From TrEMBL, chains A, B:
Name of the protein in its database record: Monoamine oxidase
Keyword Oxidoreductase listed: yes
Cofactor(s) needed: FAD
Keywords recorded for this protein, A-Z: Oxidoreductase
Catalytic class of the enzyme: oxidoreductase
Origin: domain of life: Bacteria
Length: 449, 449
């Protein structure tokens, strides 16, 4: 008899399975897709250049990821950052500025003071959140009773100050300030050190990348697990009996085990069939934790031409539709890759247009920041994560108002022999690859006891 | 070939099928349960008394329901109301007051003025909402960017005024003010005339009941449809091809048709499998429109003893856990039935306890209002709508902040040959039996063209 069936071969599922095997247990990992990695995905250009279509960064403090990368024989390199200046488009003005943590845009003294005070207030509240039990945070009902947007309107007085927080929200959650509970924004910032760290490259959440692409982590774990990982097997139904679980795939295969670890994002976990049906507090939670909205797009050039001009390839913009751009070139000499996100409202709008239209929109944004040399990329690639049947939105799930306080306890609590893992379940580094791996390993240790 | 497969034999599905058949088309209605009615459900006590476990009221202005009831040979009667006084528990004080539309609680002049001004402000905003396209309401982004709770805190100054709106929110949406977008609260009130009408009995949304129970409406429609209604057939998968749809049940039956009309609440519609998969704007909508939280509970007594004491059996309370009570006795001489709702936070908490504990909680609430005669009901019955696999929450779905403005268009827009109907889809009388029937008939006329 298997110790566990693991549903999903993303980082959480692979890490859970690997931990269980290390502890001497037998497992099967059922993956809906014909590849591993989940929200981490790779592709390779004709010349061998790897592109990362999904999650890619290892940030400062992501210690488990660093150790795992080393265990798997992989290496990291720095995101291209402080070698050049970043481009800022704010309130109709385009400027460049030095790229280092804590850098603030060139603004009027009034806007600067407003932004500084807003950040201070936000961080002060964020530090008070209870990471294990956000609903037990002091004053949780009031914090969870309002949107992040309400807080921004109340606490920022200048257009620039408000724009900063709204761009930050799109960059971090791929959704709008209207959609997110203030308590969730605070919890999430605290879970990932603080808002500044979330937005930063050096000493921040975007600090490092994996040589060869982040998908190598998933592939290396899957290689260790060998035939335990079954691809192309979407799970449809989970049956609990007195002495175990039975996990049924859409193709009609049945896997019996002592436990099942479901690593799908909450909204997808809620779409499986369960017998007996899940209790209402768990089911109603999964009705209320939607995924963000993002399309990740790439323009490839013969070389990273912007570097020679003292630019680091990064853009932060309130114009859009692509508001965040990074130099995503490989660490070795080769093509120049600019990567941009359609996030939140922009993603929802542009998902209804054609790839050609999105290509043109990305290129137009890049030309504004990098000049006419950006006008003719040799390649365009994209991944609309909302359209993926087995993801249905990225970067991760967010909690709207009222949800943490009413349903938070149901996020990780097992239902009999059903356990929940994934980036959304992590108290620390929630939403990141780091959180996913920690969550998978934590649950595996519980199950393996 | 069938004109349409209708998914769900609730009022919307039955009304859609009936309309199509009336227009000369052939249909099949697939119902997951072994009964018709969906969120409308009946049961019969040993002495023949009907209980209504789900939706039951026909309000003022519900003209389609009135006509339908007549077409089906059924009759209505008035909810027991102005023959007695209702009981109010507010801020630790219990009083009784006359029961008529527009009645306001006995409060301090300051609280009364506060409440009156709050209601006036709310109704003024509500009247401006665009019922067909709530996202096109003037100032929609600002209204949808905040919770109803934020609005209540800003616009009501007194504890009594705030308590009134919070109880109203629980009574109307079975959820808390933190959970609902202000724009949704406004839209919904306007869709149902106004907030006062939503809360009222005479000349309000709770005005009339159906003799024999509301389920008779569903049963009579199903009887007309005969073998076209297939019970015990949960739909699992919808396949669209070039020339039609194929609807597959969990048992593996396949029904082919020109169209499919899905009448499930949005969150459940989102859990079906679709081939090709649904576009992201539709899928992400269904991740964001959760069902409310309610347990409907009944205490049955040998007679409606409260009537002789000049009480109409109604309670509105900020104490709880049962905050709203009605005299739900049948119109003929017989037992006395008091019906109470565990709503919102109370429903979520009390769902985790036993039926005996909920019975004791309901009885304790009734004893406070109706004295020791309420202490020993001869029967207790309940329906936890959150626990129902094929409903997963009542009264209906609500929109949190940001959802109407980002995803509203996806609520009714067909996806190829897939059409959406149900109480949630109705511009007028949204959330009520009236809205469900109108929505079903409207979609049937579109499909039948």
């Amino acid at each position: 008899m298997l110790k566990a069936v693991v549903v999903g071969a993303g980082l959480a599922g692979l890490a859970a399975a690997r931990q269980l095997v290390a502890d001497g247990h037998e497992v099967v990992v059922l993956e809906a897709r014909h590849r591993v990695g989940g929200r981490v995905e790779g592709m390779t250009l004709e010349d061998g250049t790897p592109l990362e279509l999904g999650g890619q960064w290892i940030g400062e403090g992501h210690d488990r990821m660093r150790a795992l990368v080393a265990e798997l024989g992989l290496t990291t390199f720095r995101t291209y950052n402080d070698e050049g200046r970043l481009t800022l488009e704010l309130l109709g003005r385009r400027t460049t500025m030095a790229a280092h943590k804590g850098a603030v845009p060139t603004l009027s003294p009034f806007a600067l003071a407003d932004l500084a005070q807003g950040l201070r207030r936000f961080e002060r509240l964020a530090r008070r959140t209870d990471l294990e039990r956000p609903w037990a945070t002091p004053d949780a009902a009031r914090l969870d009773g309002q949107t992040f947007e309400t807080w921004v309107r109340r606490n920022l007085r200048t257009r620039a100050g408000r724009a900063y927080f709204r761009i930050a929200c799109e960059a971090v959650w791929a959704t709008e300030t209207a959609d997110v509970s203030l308590l969730h924004a605070l919890f999430y910032a605290h879970s990932n050190a603080d808002l500044e760290t979330l937005l930063a490259v050096d000493r921040g959440a975007q600090q490092d990348r994996v040589v060869g692409g982040s998908v190598r982590i998933a592939e290396a774990m899957a290689a260790e697990l060998g035939e335990r990982v079954v691809l192309g097997s979407p799970v449809r139904r989970i049956v609990q009996t007195a002495d175990g679980v039975r996990v049924e795939t859409r193709a009609g295969e049945v896997h019996a085990a002592d436990h099942v670890i479901v690593t799908l994002p909450p909204t997808l976990a809620g779409r499986l069939e369960y017998d007996p049906v899940l209790p209402s507090w768990r089911d109603q939670l999964t009705q209320r934790v939607p995924a963000g909205s993002v399309i990740k797009a790439f323009a490839v050039y013969p070389e990273p031409f912007w570097r020679a001009r003292g630019l680091n390839g990064q853009v932060a913009s309130d114009v859009g539709p692509v508001k965040v751009v990074f130099d995503n070139s490989p660490p070795t000499p080769g093509p120049g890759v600019l990567m941009g996100f359609f996030e939140g409202a922009a993603a929802r709008t542009w998902a209804r247009r054609t790839p050609d239209e999105r290509r043109a929109a990305l290129v137009a944004c890049l030309v504004r920041s990098f000049g006419p040399d950006a006008a003719e990329p040799v390649g365009y690639y994209e991944r609309d994560w909302m359209a993926e049947e087995f993801t249905r939105g990225c970067y991760g799930a967010h909690f709207g108002p009222g949800v943490w306080t009413a349903y938070g306890e149901a996020l990780r609590a097992p239902i009999g022999r059903i356990h929940w893992a994934g980036a959304e379940c992590a108290p620390r580094w929630n939403g990141y690859m780091e959180g996913a791996v920690r969550s998978g390993e934590d649950v595996a240790r519980e199950v393996g006891r």
